[in-house]
Design a protein that fits this description.
four-stranded parallel sheet; Isoleucyl-tRNA Synthetase, domain 2
């Protein structure tokens, strides 16, 4: 909004020559930033070599503090972006001052779509624009005075970095998950089992009898990284496969608004499902917000139930159900439209007696199925699963057999069943499932009640408005020739029918997961190339480590080939596939020179952020992923951290599932293979809130520049037109972004740091208000004045003893600020510092050195530039960064007196000043003797006195 800078407006006409102003702040801040860089102030020593020569430092506990990887956007930073970075910096500075060896650094997650899109539009190489964006972001962050170890910084686009991303991919490709051992093992051990006969080759043949292609196909069923024909979100208009998160609820691309279709394409996958149980179980040992843990548990979605086979035309439809007790109530089946059995089951003509509602108006099952599959392919998973939508589907023309009662039940396809969940097929029990109930009503399908209602309704579903679902009820109508469930409770019925299924070889008890294997391919240029080549038979071969990194080639066209947006029958053509000189190569992989073809997909943007915490530890190691001793020192398990990991990881809630889940998965594989000692990447997670800003919109709903809006008489105006105001995100597109550069220029970086930390609790979102920044600016001005004479620039502190009131205020502040900084309650720490500083201002006269120096040390984590300057002016030659944080004297922390409230009949009648150590007996005597209490009782006796020393006395009159 249009406004006068309060800081400038508050300045006197003639500013004192040594007054703390924005100009002086800028000079101080630039000077100390240069000093920190030149002196390596924030460089964290590693255990090998560095610490060995410094026993005192080696004895310190370590603290590894991380921010979530930033992406270097061309738009630069607004003031909302640094919130987490400033918070971790404050915390890291406090940890250094409380005796820790602190590792705090920052890199850049620099592969990704925005740079590639910019390259498509302008022809600028993605590396050029990305590096320019990084340079700008580094300058913005440096101006904030962040104490990062810059020796350890890197970007995921550095070949020296993605060499190891490719190396990790190869370890995953060359591993399999052994369920008996409960961990990953090298594929060579699996091959040895097949060769020796310890593990039987499916089909009964010997390993030696298999061709190279057959061996590769068999191993692909075990590998933790494998290529397969996977159902994907194919967007012809963009020419690429999209992740689920990139598809809108109405089945279109988030970028470009093109139709997205379900297709089966050859893609790389990560077998994350093998780790589902460990990913679930190990959450218990992590110090994460419970809400984030719950999101991960829900995403993994572990459920216990049974696998059941329904015979049909010589095949079997396998379903997974958690309600196997309701098998007698299954009256039809539904397959996902993409289910591979659909094509096998479609007969030439409709069976006699097929209802018209089941056919979709088509002459044959083949026509109906084809039309419906095309319709379903244009919808997103979210849209297909919407509870409110009408149920649609068509009959396949075939019937399955219910194994418990022998009934023939029709098989449909419907889009409310997804191939990615369970087996892609369900047994429909419409009387006891709301979605099945709605589908059965729409298609006039039978319903059978098999769980006796406990809510007073009848047992005839024809009279119901919705399904009846309950776990605390008895089974009815559930008896067959071989098994009877009538009269059993749900739990007992589940156990009995599961045992019966296993005995008859038509099912078994099993565990299912919502989690799907991770689709790991992208049809894009700006990503890590796969270190994989294919021989003439299509067999995938891993490149040897000596050929890493496999770098991206130069290409003329950065965009994938695009197609008619509505043409689902197309295939991706990637930018890399057009570079034949790079794609077709002759290599010697150990058996002589041969011709190969490179993989032309690239890795997704998640890849580089799956392991970056390890690179921070040992960023220049070209021989190993990480030195084991260094990894053990910074991330190894220890008391309270059973799985090891980073001590503190700070970032937004938007990465609650995918990034965190993927990083945990890679960490566990590396742990299983013996490369790291930490089975988890991040021990403690903290989610910061969001800085919001007001968005102003005109009558058309278009955002207008917030800085140009004027407030008059409670309304908001832009260029003479009244506009609306709502609180929302801050961003360039909403025309309400405020850059940190602006605030630093107006007030200084220390003021910006203080304001962002003082706005409220760190984990709560809060609105930005530029006008309120001046409050923290004035705090720093008062701090400066309490130590420096604004007219002469001389230090005014005195070497005299402070009075008791000041000492009490000081030590209370030390005690409170120390606890608040440890607990990341930065807003309350600032409030306590402000209170102490105000006390010194009101007291008047020079401040005692014994008070000024602890005050500067308390300010140092929050406003490091002014703290360094004042510390130096106070006569010290060492940086304030590595000074000891002050310790409170307990004698001054305890109040001399506390206020005790005296109540009679629940109403306050007196307030007494009493010693904190007063006993209950003493406090009762004092209260009853107080003249205000005596007057309030008016001669009445006392029936009871309730004492809660030292703060409350409650008197009950007789």
């Amino acid at each position: 909004m249009s406004e006068t800078n309060p800081a400038t407006a508050a300045e006197p006409a003639e500013v004192a020559p040594h007054r703390y102003t924005a100009a002086l702040a800028a000079e101080i801040e630039a000077r100390w930033q240069d000093f920190w860089d030149e002196n390596g102030t924030y460089e964290a020593p590693n255990p090998s070599g560095d610490l060995a020569g410094d026993p005192e430092l080696a004895a310190r506990p370590k603290k590894f503090i991380m921010d979530m990887f930033p992406y270097p956007s061309g738009a630069g930073l607004h003031v909302g972006h640094p919130l987490g970075y400033i918070a971790t910096d404050v915390y890291a500075r406090h940890q250094r001052m409380t005796g820790h060896n602190v590792l705090h650094t920052l890199g850049f997650d620099a592969f990704g779509l925005p740079a590639e899109q910019f390259a498509v539009q302008t022809g600028t190489h993605p590396r050029v624009s990305t590096e320019a964006n990084m340079a700008n972001m580094k300058a913005q962050l440096r101006r904030l005075g962040l104490g990062h170890d810059k020796r350890r910084s890197f970007a995921t686009i550095d070949p020296e970095y993605y060499k190891w991303t490719q190396w990790i991919f190869l370890q995953i490709f060359n591993s399999w998950y052994d369920p008996e051992a409960g961990k990953a093992r090298p594929v060579t051990e699996l091959v040895a089992q097949f060769e020796s006969g310890e593990r039987e080759v499916p089909g009964g043949r010997a390993w030696s009898e298999l061709s190279a292609v057959e061996r590769a196909d068999l191993l692909s069923e075990y590998r933790l990284a494998y290529a397969s024909d996977a159902p994907v979100n194919w967007c012809p208009g963009l020419g690429t496969v999209l992740a689920n998160e990139e598809v809108t609820a109405d089945g279109r691309s988030e970028r470009g608004n093109f139709p997205v279709f379900k297709a089966r394409l050859r893609q790389w996958n990560m077998r994350i499902t093998a780790y589902a149980d460990r990913l679930l179980d190990d959450l218990d040992g992590l110090d994460w917000p419970e809400a984030i843990k719950m999101q991960q548990r829900n995403w993994i979605g572990r459920s216990e139930g049974a696998r059941v086979d329904f015979p049909v035309d010589g095949e079997a439809i396998t379903v997974f159900t958690t309600r196997q007790d309701t098998l007698f109530g299954a009256t039809y089946m539904v397959l996902a439209p993409e289910h591979p059995l659909v094509e096998k089951f479609t007969p030439a003509a409709w069976p006699e007696g097929t209802r018209e509602a089941w056919t979709g108006g088509h002459a044959t099952p083949a026509e109906a199925v084809a039309a419906y599959r095309a319709q379903a392919a244009s919808k997103s998973d979210v849209e297909r699963q919407a509870e409110a939508k009408d149920k649609t589907g068509v009959f396949t023309g075939v019937f399955a057999t219910n194994p418990v009662n022998g009934e023939r039940i029709p098989v449909f396809i419907a889009d409310y069943v997804l191939m990615g969940y369970g087996t892609g097929a369900i047994m429909a029990v419409p009387a006891h499932d709301s979605r099945d109930f709605a589908f059965a009503r729409a298609f006039d399908l039978p319903m059978r009640c098999v769980v006796e209602p406990t809510d007073g309704r009848s047992t005839d579903p024809a009279e119901w408005d919705d399904a009846f679902a309950a776990y605390d009820a008895e089974l009815i109508n559930s008896s067959g020739d071989d098994v009877s469930l009538d009269g059993l409770g749900v739990v007992e019925a589940k156990a009995r029918v599961t045992a019966w299924l296993a005995e008859n070889g038509i099912g078994e008890g099993t565990v299912n997961y919502r989690l799907r294997d991770w689709l790991f391919s992208r049809q894009r240029y700006w990503g890590e190339p796969f270190p994989i080549v294919y021989d003439e038979d299509g067999v995938a071969h891993a490149l040897p480590e000596s050929m890493l990194p496999l770098e991206l080639p130069e290409v003329e066209d950065y965009s994938p080939r695009t197609f008619d947006p509505d043409d689902a029958d197309t295939q991706p053509e990637t930018p890399l596939s057009r570079n034949e000189d790079w794609v077709d190569v002759t290599l010697d992989l150990g058996d002589g020179p041969k011709k190969y073809r490179r993989e032309t997909n690239t890795m997704p943007n998640w890849a580089g952020s799956c392991w970056y915490e390890l690179r921070y530890l040992d960023p220049h190691n070209d021989e190993k992923l990480v030195d084991p001793a260094i990894e053990q020192y910074w991330m190894g398990p220890r008391e309270g951290m059973p799985h090891g990991g980073v001590d503190l990881y700070v970032g937004g809630q938007e990465h609650a599932v995918l990034h965190l889940l993927y990083a945990r998965f890679w960490s566990k594989i590396l742990f299983d293979l013996g490369y790291v000692s930490s089975a988890e990447p991040f021990h403690k997670l903290f989610n910061q809130g969001m800085i919001q800003a007001f968005v102003y919109r005109d009558s058309r709903g278009i955002a207008v520049p917030a800085a140009e809006v004027e407030e008059r008489d409670g309304a908001y105006w832009y260029q003479g037109e009244k506009v609306s105001r709502v609180l929302g995100k801050m961003g360039k597109s909403l025309k309400n972004a405020v850059t940190p550069d602006e605030i630093c220029a107006e007030y200084g970086a220390d003021t910006l740091r203080l304001y962002e930390m003082a706005m409220g609790p760190l984990d709560v979102s809060r609105p930005w208000d530029t006008r309120a920044v001046v409050g923290q600016y004035r705090l720093l001005q008062r701090l400066w004045r309490n130590i420096v004479d604004e007219a002469t620039g001389e230090v005014t502190v005195v070497d005299e003893q402070a009075d008791d009131d000041t000492l009490r205020a000081l030590h209370k502040a030390i005690d409170g600020v120390r606890q608040d900084l440890e607990g990341m309650r930065f807003n309350t720490a600032i409030a306590k510092i402000t209170e102490l500083n105000n006390h010194l201002t009101k007291t008047g006269g020079p401040v005692a050195r014994s008070v000024a120096e602890p005050l500067v040390l308390m300010v140092a984590p929050l406003a490091p530039h002014i703290a360094e300057e004042l510390w130096r002016r106070l006569g010290h030659t060492d940086s304030v960064v590595h000074q000891d944080f002050p310790v409170a004297d307990p004698a001054y922390v305890v109040d001399e007196t506390v206020t005790c409230v005296v109540q009679i009949k629940g109403k306050v009648k007196a307030r007494l000043e009493v010693p904190p150590s007063v006993s209950e007996e003493e406090l009762e005597k004092i209260a009853l003797a107080d003249e205000r209490v005596v007057a309030a009782l008016g001669g009445a006796g006392v029936r009871k006195v309730i004492v809660r020393a030292p703060k409350l006395v409650n008197i009950v009159p007789a």
